Amino acid sequence: GQERVPAIRESIAKALYNKATALNQVYWYEEAIETYEALIARFGKENIPSVQALITPARIAAAYIRIPLAKRDWEQAIVANERLNAAIVDLRQVIGQCGDEESRISIAGRLGYALFLIGRNDEAIKMIRESLQLGGKAAFETQREDAHIWRLEVEDNKYDQLLADAWAELYPEEYY
């Protein structure tokens, strides 16, 4: 009966989440994003806590995949912009929902990077600083490593400088 419906819906949501995660692990990035999106579209407004617990990680994972794919597809400006804007929307939706500091550090750093890539530098620097203030040297290294995935020489050199400048402002005694 009706009492089994939440359990069935939870099973379907978990299966979609696990499928998307597996697709990402085998480098089927577009398919992973599509599956995360299907999960969010189908279950995003569910009132089942265990199902809702999958929505935020799905948004984060999809956004984290979109950013390097935008760089991979940089020569296709419309596609790259769509990917970055979708990542920004997802990361903005979840940044206030993340309960642990480590997630906030990561989300703020990647949100800052995505904002930088589409030329919204004032917003980008705010997020980058937040990530560096909360995460210190580990956040700096992670952001720098992220910029090296499907490297865009001109843009990522500028980002490296922006990141170094932000670090120097926050930690002048430990300039990188």
Task: Summarize the model shown.
The chain has seven helices and no strands. With 176 residues, the protein is mainly alpha-helical. The N and C termini lie far apart (62 Å).
How does this structure look, described?
By secondary structure, the protein is mostly helical. It has helices at 5-25, 29-43, 49-72, 77-95, 101-117, 121-146, 153-170. Helix 1 runs parallel beside helix 3 and helix 6 (121-146) crosses helix 7 (153-170). The protein is globular and about 60 Å long. The relative contact order is 0.08.
Q: Determine the fraction of residues in helical runs and give it as a percent range.
A: over 70%
Shape annotation: globular
Count every beta strand, where a strand is a DSSP E run of 2 or more residues: 0
Mean pLDDT: 94
Rg, please? 18 Å
Supply the number of helical segments. 7
- Which structural class matches the secondary elements? mainly alpha
Order of helices and strands: HHHHHHH
Biggest sheet, in brief? Answer: none
Proportion of strand residues:
under 5%
Alpha carbon gap, first and last residue: 62 Å
Unreliable stretches (pLDDT < 50, length at least 5) are none
How is the topology of this model organized?
Elements lengths: L4 H21 L3 H15 L5 H24 L4 H19 L5 H17 L3 H26 L6 H18 L6
Helix pairs in contact: 1-2, 1-3, 2-3, 3-4, 4-5, 5-6, 6-7
Keywords:
176 residues, mainly alpha, globular
